[in-house]
Amino acid sequence: MAIDLRGAPVLVVGAGIMGAGIAQVAAQAGHRVRLFDTRDGAAADAKRKLAATLDGLVAKGKLVADAAQAASARIEPVATLDAAADARLVVEAIVENLDVKRALLRQLEAIVAPDAVLATNTSSISVTAIANGLARPQRLAGMHFFNPVPLMKLVEVVSGLQTDAAVAAAIFDLSRAWGKTPVHAKSTPGFIVNRIARPYYAEALALLHEQAATPQVLDACLRGAGFRMGPCELMDLIGHDTNFAVTNSVYEANFHDKRYVPSLVQAEMVAGGLLGRKSGRGFYAYPDGAPALPVAVHEAPATAREVVVHGDGPIADALEAAATRSLAAQGWGPARERDSGWTGLAIDDARLRLTDGRTATEIAAETGHANLAVFDRPLVLPAPAGTALAFGVADGASIAWRSQAAAWLAALGFSPLPVADTPGLVVARTVAMLINEAADAVQQGVCTADGADAAMKLGVNYPAGPFEWLARWNVVGVVRVVEALDAAYRGERYRVSPWLRRRAWGPR
């Protein structure tokens, strides 16, 4: 039987940042909202701040005065839960503690009507576990908003093992009516966003652990790939204590699966109080933040006898166009070989190759080309001039080629950033693991591919969703990068998702 919550009286429990934001959204959507908090005066204070926020929206021209006054009038601070006995939807946004949430929801069951819907705004606790002990566990679902609630569009609608499908559907529809973009999720550790996002932090921390690059270089490379913030500056913003706690929570909830293992680098920072912006220092010192990378001056590429662009597809096409522009002053252009099985440039006897996950040293040993460099995967094509791009050079390469590899990448329009000759470099490694994690989430029924894409774009502002990246890349290419990481590091962390392997070429 369908449940319609539109216009229903709402009780929000918890008048902190999240609870107040939920109350604002519900009130602006036309609901009568009761706001409760166990702290004396907290609900009334939250209403006063919300009224000021609404007035601010009026001053900015984003809301008309009558609508602001009406929304404010719909929010009623209450001193007891009994005062909201007629609520048909209860959203709790209290402390992230399983026992406290269970106790609250059991108390609420005795107050609200038997058909009232209960929702938890938990970001990490199992909805199934929260429902354990309720008289009607089927009416509880997760309604995970993102901060700041009025601005962030995503709502994860999380179903526990006993959640009634009609309850999840009602919350999904209500979220949409509130102007949000809801996605269904199964109650598993991290749900969608906090689970799929782990590699964005984990791969950066792993690269720092092996001293492959500096935080500035990692951040520049991923911003160059379209991310609004690099992983190091983002962890500084979130707070290393918070980020480390979430990672530990996901790790422990997955029975210490090596894919989610916390980082010694971050553990040391937390132990030393280097928490990021909140403490004045993390990877960077604040308020200044990340220092600018020094401006690199690259020599011009040496005159070559022959330049051949290898590979097929958008990246090879972009390389051919850039090489043609670069060589135009010499009155000639590159040749093209589409069926060579790799992407990049052959410059006389040297090779500049798009990473396939293996190190330059490994490829050089296999191919016999000592002067070989690998460059990272550009995600934005055509790449804007000066886009940061990581590259690594084979151990046996000449000093001259180390300089020339950077010179050729600069001539192709990139801002080349040297990193250690590490598997998968920076962007290819990170994005491959984000795709791999999303594929496992779909494999395990946590969400759909479309849900994963929407969640990552709206929940953490990724420039694309993991399956959108997969469509632009290809399954075989992603699998090869993850397999190269697994071959280099050994262990369970870089195992390929069965979902990807089946779509690549089946079991081998």
Characterize the structure shown:
This protein is α/β, with parallel strands linked by helices. The protein is 43% helix and 14% strand. It has three domains: 10-187, Rossmann fold (3-Layer(aba) Sandwich), CATH 3.40.50; 194-291 and 426-508, N-(1-d-carboxylethyl)-l-norvaline Dehydrogenase, domain 2 (Orthogonal Bundle); 307-418, Transcription Regulator spoIIAA. It contains 20 helices and 15 strands. The strands form two sheets. It has an eight-stranded mixed beta sheet, with helices on both faces. The longest helix is centred in the N-terminal third of the chain and has 18 residues, at 42-59. The mean pLDDT is 96.
Overall mean pLDDT stands at 96
Q: Any idea what the radius of gyration is?
A: 26 Å
Q: Give the strand order, joined by hyphens, for the main sheet.
A: 3-2-1-4-5-6-7-8
Query: Which strand-content bin applies to the residues?
Result: 5-15%
Task: Find the structural class using helix and strand composition.
Answer: alpha/beta
CATH architecture of the largest domain: Orthogonal Bundle
Helix content: 40-55%
CATH class annotation of the largest domain: Mainly Alpha
Poorly predicted ranges (pLDDT <50, ≥5 residues)?
Answer: none
Overall shape: it is elongated
How far apart, in Å, are the first and last alpha carbons?
Answer: 47 Å
Give the number of domains: 3
Count of DSSP H/I helices: 20
Largest sheet: 8 strands, mixed
